[in-house]
Specification:
Largest interface: A-B, 40 and 49 residues
Oligomer: heterodimer
Shape of chain A: elongated
Radius of gyration of chain B: 27 Å
Helix content of chain B: 10-25%
Order of helices and strands of chain B: HEEEEEHHEEEEEEEEEEEEHEE
Radius of gyration of chain A: 40 Å
Distance between the termini of chain A: 31 Å
Structural class of chain A: alpha+beta
Structural class of chain B: mainly beta
Largest sheet of chain A: 8 strands, antiparallel
Number of strands of chain A: 31
Number of helices of chain B: 4
Number of helices of chain A: 12
Shape of chain B: globular
Largest sheet of chain B: 7 strands, mixed
Distance between the termini of chain B: 52 Å
Helix content of chain A: 10-25%
Amino acid sequence: MALTANCDIYAAVNEAGINRVVRHAMRQRPSLFNYGSATFLGHPELLCREIDAHPVVLARGNPLITVEPPIPVVGTNGMYALDFCAQLGKAEVDFSSGNVFALPPELGPLGAQRLALHAMFCAGLGCPPDDVVGKLPPVNDKGIIPGIERTPAGLPRPTTVIPYQMMNCFCLDLFTVAGATITGAPNQHLLAKLFGLELVDIKPDGLENSIECYAKLVLKLAVLPKLAVPAIKFAQGVTGLFTATLTPSAVPARVPNNPALEDDELKVFVDLAIGPPPAPVPPGPPAPPPLTGVVRPRARAGGFDGTVAVSAKAVRAMFEALRDHFTFTKSDSASFGPFSISYSVAAHLEGGTIELRNDNTIRVQEMDVKWDTLRVCFGIDIPDICVGGFCLLPKLWPPWECAVEAPTTCAFTDNPDIAFCLDIGGFVTSELSATVSPVTKYAVNPGRMAGWNDWDARDAGAPNKWQLLVDPVTVDLDVFDIADMAGDLFENAVDAAVDDLLGFLPDWAKDLIRSLMGPVVDVVRGVLDFGDDLEEWLSDKLGVSLGLFNFLITAVADYFAAQKPLVEFDDPVQFMPPEGTLIPVLIPVEYLGVGVDADEMTIQADLGA
Amino acid sequence: MQVSFNRLFLEQTSFDSSAPSGLAAVLHTFAEAGQYMLKFLRDDIEFDRYAMTVLEEAPRPEAPPTHVRVDIGRLRERAPKRQAGEVGGHPAEEQAREFTIVAKGFALFTSSRKEGSYAILAEKMEKRAEPMRPESGKQKAPAGSRPERFDSRTLEAADVFAVTLIRPGGYALTNSLTGARGKITVAYPTIGKEPYRPPGPVTVHCTAKGFVPDTIDLQAAQGIIFRFAVPSRIQIDLVTPNDGPRKMLQLKTRRTAPVPELRPRPIARWRKTPDGGDAG
């Protein structure tokens, strides 16, 4: 069954992909997962759990922990405190049917439409030895150390962190079971819903229950809301061409579960509505030319980390929006000896059908090319029309040649003699069809220097790119007809041009010249050499000699893809933005693929390890 | 863009064989070899001159031309301006102002510029001509020998006058030396489905009895060639212009009620009627 059988857009993320993202975040932003007193800032080796930080974190001097105040010794009025650390050592998710980790008996097994979270927390306290404690000045009844409550400079005495010899560490495994829901209409959020939580191996039960209670509150009130995927329903202007309004597909009318937690994936089903484009924004500086990419094959087998499928109906709606914003303008001219042609055109597209096919192509058929302007101008060198010049004396030999001719005078000795224009946009019937094949390419940024890491390249504005392009397999423009009316227009224009040219002459002289010319259109027909079929000739000249139709085809191909990627994003993609001196969390995209069948277009991605 | 039609040709309605211009020309045959002086006169006063050498037939491998076209209008257009009454000039200039043809060759005289009334005189010189003085009428040949001489005011058997009348209408034809008269009618051009090609020229003979024929019907832009059995000077003047059917229609329209604009009749018309129904 098609992924989009009951929706317009289907999106799924695999638990493996999410766990990869978590691992990247923990390595690149360790301070988000590791807390402790200042002592550990310079001595991370003293932490309960070694931090596997990304080398760039260390190279750029990012902290490994977030510094928190030491834990005060109760009753010392803050005079004494102990070093401590708390670390999230591991975090992973498991979607139904549950195969990443085993749940404790209290929670397991994982039910249908459920997800499980496993987090391993490690914490420790720097407990000082007795001999050290024995040397510490005692605190009096007022909670101060007599005589040394202030520094020699008169400032309040800072807290003394009591030295220790070794950390007393422990680790807890926290398991939770949750569901997922879409809530918060009209701007829905994808939200996890907690069903159960279990801390393993804590005794006595009262302590365990208390900690679990506290952990649940933290999860429900703090963590899960922050993890909500915002705005499932939203309206997004897409490259100024249309507004895509996404709403979750209705349950159970359209789909049984939305989101669905099954097959080791989180699946979301969305319906799409295409609307008019948002108000145009002033154009910014011109974008740099797109990078040239190459097809990159997939390096692993099995399921993808992420999948997005767009139904044929949605593709059609997006295509129509794209089509409606296509415009084409062009002007050109060429000389053909006794005549010249210039043209200026403006066109747009209407109608047509789109069909997704099982051979990984999309067929767009019979789009009407509407010529808003199709102005063709001619400059024609009419053969000289002469009077006089009859033979006064033939040659002796050969006698059919003339030795002396009477004086003569000629008209139409300029080049061109006449110029006129035709507006034939309304008389040209043409259709455009195209077969395109979506393709993904990976472009290595040529501005990226050797030895740069991904963060260096990002800072220099030279990241590599993943591109989603539409490769035009064929683009056909069929000019079916240039209506006969164009021929009439042509004759009238020629007549008018000659009338205008001869306008200064007395009527008898005009008539004499027209008499000598014969039907003007015949003269012009002879010059242009179009025989009886102006329409075919015009089509040939515009399409072949002047290349107008090729320009149009190229414009369409460029517009619908070829040189400009439909979608382009950096690799690695930014997952968390930089904060102060903290580097951004970047997630490498190992593979991006696209395919088409008769039902939908599917985009699949693998994240890098 | 414009039609480079010489306005002289359009506006010229009078032709004089003495002063061929526009679509008129005089052709003279130089029978004898020798040195000639071509003079152009206006009111019997020379206003330009050129040397003409008539060579024996083909003495050189590079034979001189058998005919030459002398367009006084164009020659004067190109020549340096002179003071009034000044003739001749620097030898180098004289050299450039020389025509050469073979004996029994032809000179075609015309002017593509409006020159008004003028005459052409060609006289054979026994020796190199001295600088000439302004002419006063016709010259007489020495007694006993009559060197070859051409005078456009008196065309003779060795001459041909050709003209193409393009303005439709009726013309008066006169031989001012014999008093003969004739009539020429030039038809109004007809615009047909095929390009019109004027028929060949009509030849008119100037005899002691007059023009033969003396009534000439010409098609539009058809030429006439005059040949001479008696000394002649041909004058042709437009008497009755023919402005063609368009003019006639305009005149007629002016006298009649305005013609209503022709509109195609609709095939069907639907109109909303006051009672709300539709009527076809």
